[in-house]
Amino acid sequence: MSAPLLTASGLTRVFGHGRNAVHAVDDVSFTLGRQEVVTIVGESGSGKSTLARLVLRLLDPTAGTLALDGRDITALKGSALRAYWRDVQAVFQDPFSAFNQFFTVRRLLARSLRLSGATEDRGEALMGQALDHVGLSARDVLDKWPHQLSGGQRQRVMIARALMLQPRVLVADEATSMLDASLRANILNVLGDLRRDYDMTILFITHDIGQACYVSDRVLVMCQGRLVEQGPTDEVIFNPRHEYTQRLLADVPRLHDTTLG
Amino acid sequence: MRMVRFTPRFWISAGVFLLVAAFALLGPIFVGDKLGEGVGGLYDPPSGAAWLGTDDLGHDIFTNLVFGTRTSLIIGLVAGAVATVIGVVLGLIAGYHGGVVEEALMGITNVALAIPGIVVLILLSVALDFRSIVAMAIVIAITSWPWTARAVRAQASSVKTREHLDVARLSGASTLNILLWDVLPYLMSYICMAFVLQVSSAILAEAGLSLLGLGPSDSVSLGIMLNWALVGESVRTGAWWAFVPPTLLLTFVAFTLLMLQSSLDEVFNPRLRRGRQRAGRPASVLTQVGAPAVDARSKEGSPGA
Predict the structure, then answer these.
(1) How do strand A88-91 and strand A169-173 relate by DSSP bridges?
(2) Which of A172, B48, B57, B128 matches a 20 to 30 Å C-alpha distance to B136?
(3) CATH number, domain A6-99+166-252, options 3.30.420.310, 1.10.1670.10, 3.40.50.300, 3.40.630.10
(4) Do A58 and B2 touch (CB under 8 A)?
(5) In angstroms, what separates the C-alpha of B155 from chain A's closest C-alpha?
(6) How far B197 CA sits from the closest chain A CA (Å)?
(7) Residue range B195-245, pLDDT digits in tens
(8) Do A93 and B163 touch (CB under 8 A)?
(9) Is the pTM higher than 0.95?
(10) A99 Cβ contact partners less than 8 Å away, ≥ 6 residues apart
(11) Tell me: the pLDDT tens digits for B250-304?
């Protein structure tokens, strides 16, 4: 693999002061290679969402640096930060609270399009294309309000939103955990296609080690703000070295053991 | 989902308030421009010529009432609007920004809350040589914004946890744009209610100040009428028509606005809605009386499901 696309080194985020200080993310370093799908797994409270927000620059790190394509982006502000968001986009966990209920889908998408500076006609085409890619028709959803869409449709609109900007890195923070099983597979497949079709690198964040196994090339395991293990998916799943990873894997229900055992 | 359904209570209280406003605005057409003119003697009782009698200067009380209501309503609305704007701006910034900004703004708000409003009101009123209606309104607004600021801050910081703000930021929206389009709409119902309360308390504050003789100069308001009645010893002379009408009207306006506020609460918060649906299910009333604990739990559990 050539030079990594995104490099995080020593990322730390502390909330609170003194004795109440919480190290939500503690000295985390990792890289994302081009077109790689990397999953961060960990139980709730392990700091994975904080890490996602740090990578997205929605939250400032207490210490550590982030670099995209070798360029330090830790302290970007204003228009430079907007330019960064053209390259790095996200899909969030909750398809309900991710929508402003006072905006139609069209307005939501148009707002994001302003980042890319596309003209109106071109924007319309981009919206249609992106919605098409996630299996929605522009004619059906563009003028709908969020409450007129189902959870799965909403999540796909959110993916379309990120897609439209054709980012180089997509952060999917628990993007499938609020969906039912059949939709989840559908969304995971959409994400998989994206990597191929759009030359996209995906940082997938989940508490579900099964999903991690399904989608990713590499797995990073987080526990209490620290990165305790990382490696190729198969290696981490079948040959876990850290005790926490072993525990996570042991908690996965095993159908074979109970039905055939 | 967020269908706003106006309840009868809302229509009644809004209608009554509009009636009072119409009385103040359209009243002059019927009473003519007799403000400040002597139409009779000292405390003439109500008659065909002067429907509510005359005051200590022989002026028509009904005319005073019409113009006084107008002044009181203007002061109430202007003061309510100014206080709401100050409160919303400070509360929004504090709630959205968090951290040091929030601490500082809420510190200022709490200090403003801790200073007794009536003292500031009196000092400010005394300090002004000529008190115009707008100046009065602003003086009242200065002492009444902190409650709105606190309520708005609390609401804003709960909206802040929603992911759509992150989506907005990732879309490159500016802070002002986010506050206006992503936070403010979620608070509109609270702001409406806070505004109505502010108007009602501003009208009462004006009446209190005016009663003490610190009302707007060169005009008549409901409070000033009370002040005249007090100074003119109407109570001792039994001239009830000098102080009963303004008192009743003040009470009426304040009551209507409070009812409007609580009916808005029902409109925006359907769980508070009363009437047909409840009445049609006597069984649930029984459960509520019999097992309040169970009912409370099931209510709490429902929104998550």
Answers:
(1) parallel
(2) B57
(3) 3.40.50.300
(4) no
(5) 15
(6) 26
(7) 999 999 999 999 998 988 888 888 889 999 998 888 888 888 888 888 899
(8) yes
(9) no
(10) A108, A146, A154, A158, B164, B167
(11) 999 999 999 999 988 888 876 766 554 444 444 333 333 333 333 333 333 333 3
